[in-house]
Each structure stands twice: as C-alpha cells, then as structure tokens.
Design brief:
The protein is an alpha+beta fold and 172 residues long. It has one domain: 2-Layer Sandwich (60s Ribosomal Protein L30, Chain: A). The chain contains four helices and ten strands. A five-stranded mixed β-sheet has the order 1-3-8-9-10, with no helix packed on it. It has a five-stranded mixed β-sheet with strand order 2-5-4-6-7. The longest helix has 15 residues. The chain is globular.
C-alpha cells in the first residue's frame, strides 16, 4: 500500500432502507439498498449492471385480490401489483429489460410451523407464475427455510448479500 492511499478514505455508502410493503429504486452507485425481517415475505432485487441502476421490493402477500382497497393504497404489499411497479420504476430510470438481473430471497415458513397459511410458499409460487407469464426468470435465489433474512443490494457492483441468524453473511 502506498503512503498516499493510506490516507484516502472512500466516500461513505448511502444506505436506503426498504420497509415492509415498499420499494426503493436508485441510480446512485454509492447507495446500498437494504430490507430487514424477510420471513414469509419476499425481497426482490433487480439490477442493470451496465447503468448501475437497481431496485429492491419487499412484498408480503401473493395476490391483491384479497383486498382491492389495500391493493390501491399499498400496491407494494402484493406480488402481483408490486413486482410490475418495480420493473417500471427501473425502466423510468433508464434500465434495459435485456440486462436486468433478478435475485430473490425470503419465502420462509415463518411463524406458521403447521403450514396452515403457507404464505412463503404462496409468495414464491405467485412470483414464479408472474415472471413465467412475462418471459422473465430469476438468476439467483435463497428461498424457503424457517429463518428470517436481511437482504442488501450494492448499486456499485450489483452484489446481493444476505444475513441470516446463525450463518455468516453470504452472496447470491
């Protein structure tokens, strides 16, 4: 390491937190998108590596048909209404569909040990069907299980990192 580089401090990362039933998109390569507490919910990342544009969506439920009012007031809550909005928000920033990389985590059997509701599995199935109908596929995934996850997308590199209790952080 040269003496000069010893004193160079990289600019701080901007952490943009994505809440439950919310999305964030950005074209700031100095930003990192993060969402916490993915249990049965899905964290869905989209990234255009050429333009370094990315987005993260935290969806809770598979289908907005259960409540038209809730879907109108909070469309990011549902796979069927939130995912299209994530894609369109990235297109508005200049992302190219052909370059988009999609990664997803979550969908655990969380707080439902007897599988009564199967929200995690239903979220996974709804996403798979929506993507199939639109000719898109998942490039990497970490789905299922019984533990929660924290999901991070670094916009400078497109790296997606997952933190889960009892495991060291790992990349998708």
């Amino acid at each position: 390491m040269s003496l000069a580089s010893k004193w160079v401090i990289p600019p701080p990362k901007k952490t943009l937190v994505v809440g439950i039933a919310d999305k964030v998109v950005s074209n700031d390569p100095g930003a990192e998108l993060v969402t916490y507490s993915l249990g049965s919910c899905l964290g869905i990342t989209l990234y255009d590596p050429a333009k370094r544009i990315g987005g993260l969506l935290h969806v809770m439920l598979p289908n907005s048909a259960i409540s038209a009012a809730k879907a109108a007031s909070c469309p990011m809550m549902f796979v069927d209404t939130g995912v299209p909005r994530l894609f369109h928000a990235l297109y508005e920033l200049g992302a190219d569909r052909a370059r988009l990389v999609l990664k997803v985590a979550g969908g655990a059997q969380f707080l439902d040990p007897d599988g009564v509701f199967n929200i995690g599995e239903r979220n996974q199935a709804a996403l798979a069907e929506l993507l199939r109908r639109n000719g898109f596929s998942i490039q990497a995934e970490d789905l299922g299980g019984v533990s929660s996850r924290t999901l991070r997308l670094q916009l400078d590199s497109g790296r997606v990192q997952i933190h889960s209790p009892g495991r060291p952080p790992y990349s998708l």
